Amino acid sequence: MKNVHILNHPLIQQKLFYLRDERTINLHFRTMLNEIAGLMVYEVTRNLPLRERELKTPLEKTSGFVLSRPVTLVPILRAGLAMCDGILSLIPKARVGHVGLYRDKETLQPVEYYLKFPTDLAESEIIVIDPMLATGGSAVAAIDVVKKHGGKSISFVCLVAAPEGINTFHAQHPEIPIYTAALDRELNEKGYILPGLGDAGDRIYGTE
Questions:
Q1: Is it the case that residue 3 has pLDDT exceeding 80?
Q2: What digits encode the pLDDT tens for the residues 126-164?
Q3: What is the distance, to the nearest Å, from the Cα of residue 36 to the centroid of all Cα atoms in its chain?
Q4: What SS3 string covers 90-132?
């Protein structure tokens, strides 16, 4: 699929194996989810722009490179929060905005309940995060809100995606790259990804 990046690193795939396993307890699920997010961020940030800066080593003056623009993480609440720490461990200066959305179980449509962003989204490299790209409704709604508040340079990162979700997402936002650890088969009648890994939020936080 165009503009979809499936990250097949062996360590990502091994951790994903255990996330799919129904026997994996909440603690281990959270830990491995953060570890996968940390591994994925290497590829997600591969093309971030740099600028050159001078510095002085203990021996002489030289120059090196730093990120030229701030990075803002935008987890889709609540499950997206569980991927933040893994990314922040590698980009500790990143800011974190929040989009609170839940999927109505009857209509499968996203409902917004919370919103908080840094003031300069237009100047930032933005990474929108959610473990699952299922129907695509929540992801599209989150990107809509980010763009409305000035966001321009945006990537979307998820753990598992369904073809239906990718098609819905790129029908609305074709220019935004999707990074995922797996492209699964399909959605079931309730909008869950198959084979998937269940409800990520419930498995992260031990709820039902």
A1: yes
A2: 999 999 999 998 899 999 999 999 999 999 999 999 999
A3: 11
A4: CCCCCEECEEEEEECCCCCCEEEEEEECCCCHHHCEEEEECCE
CA gap 182, 165 in Å, rounded: 13
For 129, the token pair is 């995060």
Which domains, ranges and CATH numbers included, belong to the chain? Answer: 4-47+68-205 (3.40.50.2020)
The first and second tokens of residue 63, run together, are 């120059």
Question: What is the distance, to the nearest Å, from the Cα of residue 106 to the centroid of all Cα atoms in its chain?
Answer: 25
Just list the catalytic residues. 103, 107, 199, 202
Distance CA 88, CA 95 (A): 9
Question: Percent of the chain at pLDDT above 70?
Answer: 99
